[in-house]
Amino acid sequence: MNAVRTSPDQWISDLELITMAAKAAGERALSFFRKNPDVQWKNEGRSPVSEADYAANDILKEKLLTARPNYGWLSEETDDDEARLGCDTVFVVDPIDGTRAFIAGKEVWCVSVAVVHHGRPVAGVLFAPALDELFQATLTGDALKNGMPVTVRTEKDTVLRIALAEETVRLLEHGYRAGVSRIAHVPSLAYRIAMVADGRIDGTIVKKNSHDWDLAAADLILERAGGALFGLDGQPLSYNRPNVRHTVLCAAAMSVLPALIAASQGLDGH
């Protein structure tokens, strides 16, 4: 069991650690980028994983658990160990969020690393090395992009820019649809949420079966930028549970979120 840590200074120290590790993992992944890395298929052939994913995962695990051996570990590319459930504080990691884009040579992929304490993220980093973009946040202070504060959009436009799948549009509440401009597919879920945080888009809808590692770092970055990632029940997410999958989610500025959640109720079950 972890010792309970509540000092903001501890999370700032953890942010420095996970930033260092994410940069190292991202640079290692970048060395495979557009060089035809070996690809395997998991989850009964539904999900690709490349040698770059594993190489980045190895770097993250070595650097993070060497520095914080009492923290738990949850990663997309490591077999789940239920020992994490007995830990107050856990690293939640996706070595490459957007593996399909990475394999296809597209630049929108990132390393996602969060520190989760008592079920909520307290430090988070997204590093997109092909774009040279670094997002960071802790429980205190601003969300940062390349060291500069970012915030969600606050302008009141008649049309909202929402990232969602084309087939999802028809499931939105009819009256809401007319005020939505659909943004083309963004292959990395974590990066898509970061786009809400830095104000490029107004919101996004996350289909069911996303995982802790897709979300935890981006969740905190969005929160510190003035937005939130909620379920259709209007509640924040809890991480490091036995089941790491989530239901339909909405991410947006707080001023936009209630209407987006209300309009998305038809997605429940899809």
Write the layout of secondary structure elements.
Blueprint: H1 8-30, E1 39-42, E2 47-50, H2 51-67, E3 72-75, E4 89-97, H3 99-103, E5 110-117, E6 120-128, E7 133-138, E8 143-145, E9 148-150, E10 160-163, H4 166-169, H5 174-177, E11 180-183, H6 189-197, E12 203-206, H7 212-224, E13 227-231, E14 249-253, H8 257-263
Parallel strand pairs: 3-4, 10-11, 10-12
Antiparallel strand pairs: 1-2, 4-5, 5-6, 6-7, 7-8, 8-9, 12-14, 13-14
Strand order of the largest sheet: 3-4-5-6-7-8-9
Kindly provide the radius of gyration, computed on alpha-carbon positions and rounded to a whole number of angstroms: 18 Å
Helix content bin? 25-40%
SS class:
alpha+beta
Mean pLDDT: 93
Q: Strand content of the residues, in percent?
A: 25-35%
Total strand count, please? 14
Q: SSE order in H/E notation?
A: HEEHEEHEEEEEEHHEHEHEEH
Note the total helix count: 8
InterPro entries: Inositol_monophosphatase-like, Inositol_monophosphatase_CS
Family: Belongs to the inositol monophosphatase superfamily.
Protein name: 3'(2'),5'-bisphosphate nucleotidase CysQ
Keywords: Magnesium, Metal-binding
